[in-house]
Every structure is written in C-alpha cells, then in structure tokens.
Design a protein that fits this description.
- The chain has 703 residues and is of the alpha/beta class.
- Among the domains are: 142-333, Dimethylsulfoxide Reductase, domain 2, CATH 3.40.228; 582-699, Barwin-like endoglucanases (Beta Barrel).
- Helix content is 32%, strand content 18%.
- The protein is built from 24 helices and 28 strands.
- The strands form seven sheets. The chain has a seven-stranded mixed β-sheet, with helices on both faces.
- α8 (224-238) packs across α10.
- Bound molecules: iron/sulfur cluster (SF4).
- Iron/sulfur cluster (SF4) binds at residues 10, 12-13, 15-17, 40, 44-45, 47-48, 180-182.
- Its cofactor is Mo-bis(molybdopterin guanine dinucleotide); [4Fe-4S] cluster; FAD.
- Keywords: 4Fe-4S, FAD, Flavoprotein, Iron, Iron-sulfur, Metal-binding, Molybdenum, Nitrate assimilation, Oxidoreductase.
- Residues 3-59 form the 4Fe-4S Mo/W bis-MGD-type domain.
- Belongs to the prokaryotic molybdopterin-containing oxidoreductase family. NasA/NapA/NarB subfamily.
- GO terms for molecular function: 4 iron, 4 sulfur cluster binding; metal ion binding; molybdopterin cofactor binding; oxidoreductase activity.
C-alpha cells in the first residue's frame, strides 16, 4: 500500500516525542514513534500511540461556528463572517464602554507557538490589555519565577541527553512514570545499565516512579522547603559543596548560610514526617555525585509556596556546582507540549515576547516599535484565577477561551461557574464540545486539531519542532492562528495580513533577535528540512544549543547565579481542622490527559482506570468504616464529589488523592475534583495550589 509520510510531535505532554504519521489514499492514518527523533528514539507511551484515533474520531467535533443572541436561547449555526463580526462588535463595544481591561483571553499550553504569538500581539499590542494568560499558569509559573530570579531568566539549562550522563537524580513532586513516560523510560534504562546511579524520589505518595528509587522520601504535603534546606545544611556540614563554583559564579550565599544555620536536621525530619538518616542519605547521594539532576513538576509548582519550593531545590544545584556541565542541572518538567513555546512569545500576563518582562518600560518600547504601535499597556494583566474572579465581580466583561476547559481544570469550580454565568460574553474556541466550559459559550468557534494545521512547539528541553498538517480539518473548522488573524482584520488592525503560519513564525523569530532565546536562525522551512533544534539558534547555520551556562555566565545583571533564602513556615496553605481533617491533593493518572476531551474518546485508554477514585490511607479508611470500592463523599465548604475509594498504604495517613481529569459532562455523579480545591495562589508566581485543600471523607449514604 502507498502511504504519504509526515513527521510531527506528540501533542500531549512536554516530553515532546517525535511521531511518524502515514496516510493512505483513503485518508486513513497510522502512527509510530520516530526512530530518528532524539527525544524518544522510536518509543511512544500509551497516550502517544493512540493519538491518531482521536484525530479520526469526529463524533463530538465542532464543525461550524455557533452563536446565540441571548443566554437563554440555544446557539445557532452561523457563518465565520457573522461569528467574527459579532466577536469584533462585542469587543469594540466593551472596550469603548469599559476600557481595554474589560476583555481578556485565556489560552492553553496546547496552543502552537504561532497561535500564542498572535493572541499576545492582538491583546497587548492592539486591544491594549495585558489580560492574556494561559493554563500553563496552573503548571509552570512557579518554576518560571524561580528560574528567573536564580538564573536571570526562565531558562531550562539542560537537555534530555544529560539524563544518560548523570549519576544522581532527585525527582521531586513528580510522577514521570505516569506523566512523562518516555522520559521515565530513558531514566529507567539508564539505571538498569548503571546500577550505581542513585535516584531519590520526594513525594507524599508512593507512585510508580518509586519503582526505580533508591530512596523514597515520603514527606508530608507542603514540607518540601524544609527538606531541601535540611539537605543543603547536611551538604555544608559534610563539605560536599563546590566552593570554587560558589565563589566565582554565585551570589547570596551569606544569607542562605544564615538560613541554613537555623535549620536542624532533627526538626526538619519531624516536620517532614521522615527519618533524619534518610535526609543524610539523600545528601550523601547528591554530594557524591559526578552529575546531579533535579527534576520536578506539579508537586512543587502547584502550591502557595511554589516559588519557595523551587528556590530551595535550585539552591542544591548551585551549592554543589551542578549546572552548566554534562549530566547536571535543575530540570523542570513541563506538563504541556508547548508550555515553553508559549513563554517564548510572552504568553502570560506578566511577560512579553522573547522572555521580555511586561513591567519593564524598555522591553515594552522594543516590542511596541517592532509591532508598529505607539505603546503597550503598562498595567499588569490578570493572571488565570484573577481573570475569572474579575469576570465574577463584573470588572471584566468578556473572555475568549482558547483550547482549554477552565470549568474543569481551574480550582474552585463553583466560582468558575459563577464567573462564566456572570460574564457578558464568552467565546470558546476548541475542537470539541466535550467540555464543561463549552456549555457557557455565547460564541463557539470550531478549531482545527493536531495534524489538521501546521506550526511549531517547544518541549521541556527547549527543543523546537515543526508539526506538519496531514489532513484537512472537519466541517468549517479553522486553524487557531487563522481565526485570530481573521478576527484582527475584522477589528481593522494593521499587521495581521498573514498568508500562513510560517509568516507568523518568521515574525516571532525576528522579535527574538539579540535576546537570550534568539531563534532568528530558524524558520518552518529549516525545521522541516533539518529536524528539531534547541534554542538559542541565533543564525542560519547554527546547530542549536543543548546546554546553557556552559561558560558559567548566568543571565542575571551580575552574570552570577543567585542563592535565594526560602524560609519554611507552617500553615501557609489551607489549614486542616476537625471538620476537614484530611489534605486533598489532585493530580493525573497514566492514560488520561487534562480534562479528557481527547483521551476520554479512546477505549483502550479508558480501560486503564475507567472511573474516578479516591486514594486513601488504610487507617483513614478504617476510621471511616470504608472498604475498597465503597462509595464515599469527599466534601468541604466549597463542594463535594462522590467517588469509589481505593485503599492504599502508598499514601500517607492524613492525605487523600483525587485524579483531576473528570468533569461534569463525563461523570455527573463524581462532578469535578476541583469542586473541592481552594484557589489560593503563590504570591509571586500566581500559580494556584492544587496540592493542599482541607476536606472530610465520609461513607456515602443514600438520601
Ligand atoms: Fe506523548 Fe508524552 Fe507519551 Fe511522549 S511521553 S508519547 S510526548 S504523552
């Protein structure tokens, strides 16, 4: 059989595995891992292997724009022209009456870089508002804040190839065995081939990742800072620090030492709920390592002290001089496939293109000049949760939601529901109607999905890849970038007369010129012809940059990396009490992705864990007379969910876990884990805390 062959990148997690897609003469697709791809070398996980089924299943796809005149009316099919004319009229009217900050965009780490670029140009350059934020705020912003302060910029210093060069790993608040499976397989193989490699896992739950751990530090939720400070204290005590590196390439050790001087290992062990000897052992593994890599994800980031947790972990790399050399460095694992690409274009309320900072007047001037506009707004934009609070309070009137399902994924679902009810106008742009949020749309815009459009993404190790268009989108669905530039044209804005996504990409690349993420040597053509590149790629023949800070020149003003002094204090999140004595953590399961709008369509993936569950410790279950499979109600003042219990000794007593994927549309009884989460945010990164909500669990009794 004859096939056309295309290369692309998996559109689920931030690992960024390469895939080869074959299309036969009837348009049927086959998919396999790309053996030549440096990330996955032909491997794919269960989600990646089933991606093409999702593309071919059109059962719940949005095919035409739909609009309604008033909330109580059903939506009717309309033309693209009518849909975008209405969107433009609403935005113009709101801005005229209430000012530019009355509108905003909430987008996604699933968006391609070109789409991210356009929505930022549109909002910040032309609508005059910084109200553009992303669901990457929910997964990455604490790491971004900590990298920026420590290294001078949001720059992941290392590369996947460093995994095979390291001999000690600290995996903190992450379960890569389920959430970054191909990266985990590389790690597992490395450990199999090199038994001397040490792996320390820090997690209140004993997850699948612990299967390769030499040491599992099962800390109590929220105690990470005291643990990493205690490890640092031990490294100082034993002299296992890189004195030369610290002296030449860092600042802030004095204050950090003072902080550590007040840290007692015994007290730290008590706070964390672990043994002193285990802290010493972790320090010994790290201190003895030739190459030390820390890896982390949501367990650190999704916290009211997420930035401090990141600081405390990053300090360990500075203390041991394990950065800017092969097999070493702090490696934050991005959750989404293009969380990093979004940040490159400034896809957050606090950022501008090429890692420029919104609050910096010079940066605003550079971008304004580039876009040919007088100024960029200086008022900070609303971040994810704040945007929905502003809708609820009536300060913001209209929101445009692209490729994400905030009603299921943002904390405190009831408030998000209220916000969407209160909003004067809600636009939802997505591939599917299988989302709780879509029900609130006044205007529903059908978008093209993976393989139905082209563009680029950047994975966790700064690797940029080109994604080919393989099939036409169904019905009248359009690529997100085209929807945005057509809207901008309707608004009468100059500079949006693109013919295709490659023109948008070229513009973005030009705007990175002479910055630390300079990719002016890239184009769609080069990526198609030569494969993937890690930024920076500052000129045409540049091969890309696998490792940053090799010259130990950090991006801070002084060129030196900064020690920070994260102080641990108790009760910085939602305290438990008699009524709500358990700490709820939410998270992901192996075969589902986000709110299941895609993975939920694949039987093979659903069969792994077919329904939501509550993981609860044996003693907590016994106390409540709960047995495996019993129905329980998890509740607090914000809401409740009804769910079967899974009794486990893998979770600490006092802590329970719910998967975050199911929404009301998929499981009305369970409703949403985020009915219970509290919505408090880290004051620096503005990232919400999904790992510490106080709840009660009771046996379900029929009313
Ligand atoms: Fe896709 Fe991530 Fe699985 Fe790779 S590890 S196939 S990127 S979901």
């Amino acid at each position: 059989m004859r096939y056309q062959t295309f290369k692309s990148t998996c559109s689920y997690c931030g690992v960024g595995c390469g895939v080869v897609v074959k299309k036969d003469h009837k348009g049927r697709l086959q998919l396999e891992g790309d053996k030549d791809h440096p990330v996955n070398r032909g491997m794919l996980c269960s989600k990646g292997r089933n991606l093409h089924y999702v593309v071919q299943d059109k059962s719940d796809r949005l095919l035409f724009p739909e609009m309604r005149g008033a909330r109580q009316h059903p939506r009717q099919r309309v033309s693209w022209d009518a849909a975008l004319t209405r969107a433009a009229a609403v935005f113009q009217s709101m801005i005229r009456k209430y000012g530019p900050d009355s509108v905003g965009f909430y987008v996604s780490g699933q968006c391609l870089t070109e789409e991210y670029y356009l929505v930022n140009k549109l909002a910040k350059g032309f609508l005059g508002t910084n109200n553009i934020d992303t669901n990457s705020r929910l997964c990455m912003s604490s790491a971004v804040a900590a990298y920026t302060k420590t290294l001078g910029e949001d720059a992941v210093p290392i590369s996947y190839e460093d995994i095979e060069l390291a001999d000690c790993f600290l995996i903190a608040g992450a379960n890569p065995a389920w959430c970054h499976p191909i990266l985990f397989r590389r790690l597992e193989k490395h450990k199999e081939e090199n038994p001397n490699v040490k792996i320390v896992v820090v997690d209140p739950r004993k997850t699948q990742t612990c299967s390769i751990a030499d040491l599992h530090l099962q800390i109590l939720p929220g105690t990470d800072v005291v643990l990493y400070n205690a490890i640092a204290r031990r490294l100082l005590e034993t002299g296992q620090v890189d004195v030369d590196f610290i002296a030449k390439h860092t600042e802030g050790l004095k204050n950090y030492r003072m902080l550590l001087a007040g840290t007692s290992l015994k007290k730290a062990a008590k706070i964390c709920g672990i043994e002193v000897n285990d802290i010493k052992l972790a320090a010994q593994y790290i201190g003895n390592a030739e190459g030390f890599i820390s890896m982390w994800a949501m367990g650190l980031n999704q916290s009211v002290i997420g930035t401090d947790k990141n600081f405390a972990l990053l300090n360990l790399s500075l203390l041991t001089g394990q950065i800017g050399k092969p097999g070493s460095g702090p490696f934050s694992l991005t959750g989404q496939p293009n969380a990093m690409g979004g940040r490159e274009v400034g896809g957050m309320a606090s950022l501008l293109a090429a890692h420029r900072i919104q609050s910096n007047p010079e940066h605003r001037r550079e971008v304004a000049d580039f876009w040919g506009v007088d100024t960029l707004p200086d008022k900070p934009g609303l971040t994810a949760t704040k945007m929905f609070e502003a809708l609820e309070s009536g300060k913001m009137k209209a929101v445009w939601i692209i490729c994400t399902n905030p009603l299921t994924s943002l904390p405190n679902s009831r408030r998000i529901e209220k916000a969407l009810e209160k909003a004067r106008f809600v636009i939802v742009q997505d591939i599917s109607r299988r989302s709780d949020t879509a029900a609130y749309a006044d205007l529903l815009l059908p978008a093209a999905g993976w393989l139905e459009k082209d563009g680029t993404m950047t994975n966790s190790d700064r690797r940029i890849s080109y994604l080919s268009k393989v099939v036409d989108p169904p019905g009248e669905a359009l690529p997100d970038a085209e929807i945005l530039w057509r809207f901008a044209q309707k608004m009468g804005f100059r500079g949006f007369d693109y013919q295709d996504a490659s023109e948008v990409y070229d513009e973005h690349c030009r705007l990175t010129k002479n910055t630390n993420i300079d990719i002016s040597g890239l184009s769609h053509k080069r990526l198609q012809e030569e494969g993937t590149f890690q930024w920076p790629v500052p000129f045409d023949n540049h091969p890309g940059t696998p490792r940053l800070f090799v010259d130990k020149q950090f991006y801070t003003i002084s060129g030196k990396a900064q020690f920070n002094t994260p102080v641990y204090t108790e009760n910085r999140s939602e305290p438990t009490d008699k009524q709500h004595p358990l700490v709820l953590m939410t998270g992901r399961i192996r075969d589902q992705w986000h709110t299941m709008t895609r993975t939920g369509k694949v039987n093979r993936l659903n069969s792994h864990i077919p329904e939501p569950y509550l993981e609860i410790n044996y003693f907590d279950a016994m106390e409540r007379d709960l047995k495996n499979g019993d129905l329980a109600v998890v509740r607090n003042g914000r809401g409740q969910v009804r769910v079967k219990v899974k009794i486990s000794t893998d979770i600490k007593s006092g802590v329970v876990f719910l998967p975050m994927h199911w929404g009301k549309i998929l499981n009305r009884d369970f409703a949403r884990a985020n009915n219970l989460t509290q919505g408090l945010i880290d004051p620096v990164s503005k990232q919400p805390d999904f790992k510490y909500s106080a709840v009660q669990v009771e046996r379900y009794r029929k009313p």
